[in-house]
Amino acid sequence: MKALLTLLLTLGADPLPEPAKLPALADWPDPLTALDGTKITTPEAWKTKRRPEIARLFDHYMYGAMPKAHGPIVAKVRHESKTSAMWVRELDVAVGPDAPVVRLLVVLPPPGRAPKAVFVGPNFNGNHVVLPDPGIAITKAWVYPDRMNSKNNQATEEGRGKGLAQWNAPMIVEKGYGLATFYGGEVDPDRGEERGGLQPWLRARESHSPDRWGTIALYAWAMSRMADALAQDPATAKAPPLAVGHSRMGKTALLAAAMDERFAMSFPLQAGCGGTAPSRGKIGESVKQINDRFPHWFNSRFKEFNERPEKLPFDQHHLVSLAAPRPVLFANAVEDSWANPAGQFEVLRAADPVYRLLGAGGCDAREMPALGALTAGTLGYWIRPGKHEMKTDDWRVFLEFADRHLPGAR
Fold first, then answer.
1. Is the dihedral of CA 278, 284, 288, 291 positive or negative?
2. pLDDT recorded at residue 10
3. pLDDT per residue as tens digits for the range 198-248
4. pLDDT one-digit tens code per residue, 285-326
5. Beta carbons of 147 and 125 less than 8 angstroms apart
6. Under DSSP, is residue 249 helix (H, G, I), strand (E, B) or coil?
7. Domain range spanning residue 394?
8. Number of structural domains the chain divides into
9. Whether 60 is catalytic
10. Which of 84, 101, 150, 282 has its CA 20 to 30 A from that of 363?
11. What is the CATH number of the domain that holds 201?
12. What is the number of other CB atoms lying within 10 angstroms of the CB of residue 41?
């Protein structure tokens, strides 16, 4: 308790201290204790005092502050096709004057059927893998090697539709929802070398600092810009966006929902360390391992916690708390021990008091559920047999959870 009080008094100063000067906290910090030691006991105090503090801590010590707005969002339809089952459009989205275009694939129920909500998230391999539609553009950006028929880090025609079983767009629209996805590599290629995509354009407009965004924060910022584009479109303007992503894109989805309250729910799948798993966890990937392997994902300060994650003045339940009172579903697979499924359940449990304070329910389960059982409550948990991948079973549960919690969805 003495160390915690010292931490809070230290953090009450402005600017925030360097990581080496933070005391070690073996126990998870309390999201309802403010930086000055005040206990947060009302929704108003959470909204005006504690929530902004936590967001600042994540910006400063982990993800980096997201870019600023650099002009109006301009979206132009570059491809459109309609069938009796779905309405497919691909938009060229520019986030500012002369900004490189990011292509947003929007799959909706056929015209005349307004979507209940739209799942929004980045994909790993290009929009063309989501559906076999020949009009969807093949990205010119760098792509991961040897995935979905890529060759020499370039997407190919042979990859078209290869991700149908991952994204399940036909099932999503059949259930009355929409899907909006973009290739993350058009925002920032996911590699450790010199940045591409929007990064050079943004860096030319913003000064460098140790707490500037990493790739995860930039992807999350891009999700918000895609939500801007959807909000401007009459076909989707009334449909709330739902943040979704797998693995590193699951980290992105949770961060986007935490920082942008327009996202009505979030669905991080197997997001693991740096997302849904505790940084203080002893199972699976560690802070050091993720920073060593992916040095570009987080800001430079986060690396200073490689050997001492217990010095972090937060853990990932704080990130979930930023999403309160909105529903969050953590989804996992038994064989994916690297993502620490049990630790993720404890993260949800630790965020529960914030949700209860806001009158939003919380994590109703006291123990991890049986395989295939979706827990009740605003903070949901689900674990299935299998490995690290996004598949049809996951989407069935996403849609069930959305129907449970979206007003008027059933």
1. negative
2. 52
3. 989 998 998 877 778 999 999 999 999 999 999 999 999 999 999 999 999
4. 999 999 999 999 999 999 999 999 999 999 999 999 999 999
5. yes
6. helix
7. 116-405
8. 1
9. no
10. 282
11. 3.40.50.1820
12. 10
